[in-house]
Amino acid sequence: MARRRRPRTAAPRYDDEVVAVFIHHTDSPNGYDCADAPGIIRTLYEGQTGARDWDDLGYNFVVDRCGTVYEGRAGGTDRPVTGAHTQGFNHRSTGIAALGTFTEGVDVPRRCCAPSPPWPPGSSARPTPTRAPTPGWSPATTAAATRPAPPPRCPSSPATATPT
C-alpha cells in the first residue's frame, strides 16, 4: 500500500543563525531539461513527505543545472530555517542540493547554458530563490511569474564526475 502524502501542517522551525552550509546532490537523473526541474523537485517533495513521512522537503534550497535556485523547505529564504538534510547537523546550517547525480563515474553536463549570478561573500547581489512546487502549484501561473524562460538545453557532450 502506498503512503499518502501528509499535508504540510507543522510550522517551520528556526535557528538563531546559519554557521555552516552542506552541499548535496539529489541522486536523480542529470539529462533533464531545465523546464522539467519543477516536476523533478515536486517528485522529491512527494518522496520525502510520503515515503519518509517528513513534513516538508529536507533541503533548504535546490539548484537546477541552469542555475535557477529554488526555495526548498518552507519558512523563508532570508531566515535560518532548520532543515532535514544532514542528520545530526541540521541546526544552524543550511542544505543546498544540486539537482542530479554527481558521483564518480556518472556522466554530468560539462557546463550550464546559463551563467550563475554572482554571489560573493559580503555582496548584496544574491540570487532570488523561487518557491519549490508544492501541492496546488501550477507551472502555468507560478513559473511564468517567478522565472524567466529556461535557456536552451545544455550541449550533450557530457563529462564524467571525478572525486575531489
Automatic annotation (TrEMBL):
<dbReference type="GO" id="GO:0008270">
    <property type="term" value="F:zinc ion binding"/>
</dbReference>
<dbReference type="GO" id="GO:0009253">
    <property type="term" value="P:peptidoglycan catabolic process"/>
</dbReference>
<comment type="similarity">
    <text>Belongs to the N-acetylmuramoyl-L-alanine amidase 2 family.</text>
</comment>
<feature type="region of interest" description="Disordered">
    <location>
        <begin position="112"/>
        <end position="164"/>
    </location>
</feature>
<protein>
    <recommendedName>
        <fullName>Peptidoglycan recognition protein family domain-containing protein</fullName>
    </recommendedName>
</protein>
<feature type="domain" description="Peptidoglycan recognition protein family">
    <location>
        <begin position="1"/>
        <end position="141"/>
    </location>
</feature>
<dbReference type="InterPro" id="IPR036505">
    <property type="entry name" value="Amidase/PGRP_sf"/>
</dbReference>
<dbReference type="InterPro" id="IPR015510">
    <property type="entry name" value="PGRP"/>
</dbReference>
<dbReference type="InterPro" id="IPR006619">
    <property type="entry name" value="PGRP_domain_met/bac"/>
</dbReference>
<feature type="compositionally biased region" description="Low complexity">
    <location>
        <begin position="122"/>
        <end position="147"/>
    </location>
</feature>
<dbReference type="GO" id="GO:0008745">
    <property type="term" value="F:N-acetylmuramoyl-L-alanine amidase activity"/>
</dbReference>
<dbReference type="Pfam" id="PF01510">
    <property type="entry name" value="Amidase_2"/>
</dbReference>
<dbReference type="InterPro" id="IPR002502">
    <property type="entry name" value="Amidase_domain"/>
</dbReference>
